[in-house]
From TrEMBL:
The keyword NAD applies. It holds the Pfam family MTHFR. Its cofactor is FAD. Its EC number is 1.5.1.54. It is an enzyme of class 1 (oxidoreductase). GO terms for molecular function: methylenetetrahydrofolate reductase [NAD(P)H] activity. This is Methylenetetrahydrofolate reductase. It catalyses: (6S)-5-methyl-5,6,7,8-tetrahydrofolate + NAD(+) = (6R)-5,10-methylene-5,6,7,8-tetrahydrofolate + NADH + H(+). It comes from the Bacteria. The keyword NAD applies. It comes from Pseudoxanthomonas gei.
Length: 276
């Protein structure tokens, strides 16, 4: 089951310790020759420079094709314009364009309301200079009115100029296949890459999943609960489960896989070792 490209997602480190960890992780994951790596972006400005610094570092010190995430919520057109200029100057060719989520308590929604408006802005300012990836939600975005409206909003991002999509993570392959079928029926032709979240810590996974609306199937939750603090068994079970998901996605036509690494190498490598 070899042959599909991988990409790896990192978050921007803020301390020396976190920077050293990202360097170790990047070194280890390099062996898998990712198509590109990406770096997340915190809405509201707090990690503005962390993302660009990390992208520059991943390019210059590790030789990766590195793509910044760029979210529009909480930002002005001018701030986004400056960031785009900076990314162009650094030599970035790919951007993951998102609406983002405002941290609770932060009031100002920003000049652009939705990712589709951000894509229109990027295209208006820079034409085709950037390859634009967008977010996709096989289990439906948690704030959407309903699943069909959400699909239409997804299509609006493609019509605005998105070149590819990366999904929110999921553990039910059928959700992905149904999503791909549904958007193909709407005329969407761009690649839709599954986002893969390796499992190594159930408590953390549960917290993330509640926040982003990703479902952990009941049987998986029950099994992980039963394994409790037995860290090795949780990792083994998680790696087998996620590798089986990847195999199914590849067999069903997924064009590549995007791993949410959380800046750790082991959980992702344990999955890849079983996939290949
Ligand atoms: P949008 O596509 O704008 O959609 C957001 C919601 O608005 C949906 O419910 C949609 O149905 C609805 N909507 C869209 N258009 C309209 C319209 N015209 N009228 C009414 N409703 C509409 N967050 C970060 O802060 N930083 C990151 O780095 C980051 N990286 C991510 C990477 C990936 C691959 C994914 C899948 C998500 C990432 N996120 C990140 C999370 C993302 O920002 C949130 O899920 C956010 O809530 C939605 O972003 P979006 O770009 O999908 O929004």
């Amino acid at each position: 089951m070899a042959g599909v490209p991988f990409s790896f997602e990192f978050y921007p480190p803020k301390t020396d310790e976190q920077r050293a960890q990202l360097d170790r992780t990047a070194e280890k994951l390099k062996v898998h020759a990712p198509e590109y790596v990406s770096c997340t972006f915190g809405a509201g400005g707090s990690t503005l420079s962390y993302t660009s610094e990390t992208v520059r570092h991943l390019k210059q010190s590790h030789g990766f094709d590195a793509a910044p995430h760029l979210s529009c919520v909480g930002g002005s057109r001018e701030e986004i314009r400056e960031l785009l200029k900076l990314y162009k100057a650094i030599g970035c060719r790919r951007i993951v364009a998102l609406r983002g989520d405002l941290p609770s308590g932060m009031g100002h929604p920003g000049d652009l309301r939705y990712a589709s408006e951000l894509i229109e802005f990027i295209r208006a300012e820079h034409g085709d200079a950037f390859h634009i990836e967008v977010g996709a939600y096989p289990e439906t975005h948690p704030q959407s009115e309903d699943a069909l409206t959400d699909l239409k909003h997804f299509k609006a991002k493609v019509d605005a100029g998105a070149n590819g999509a990366i999904t929110q993570y999921f553990y039910n392959a059928d959700a992905y296949f149904h999503f791909v079928d549904a958007v193909r029926r709407l005329g969407v032709e761009i690649p839709i890459v599954p986002g893969i979240m390796p499992i190594s810590n159930y408590t953390q996974l549960k917290r993330f999943s509640e926040a982003c609306g990703a479902e952990i199937p009941r049987w998986i939750g029950k099994r992980m609960q039963a394994l409790g603090d037995d860290v090795d068994s949780v990792r083994e079970f998680g790696a087998d489960l996620v590798a089986a998901l990847c195999d199914r996605l590849i067999a069903g036509g997924a064009p590549s896989l995007h791993f949410y690494t959380l800046n750790l190498s082991k959980p992702t490598m344990n999955v890849i070792a079983r996939v290949r």
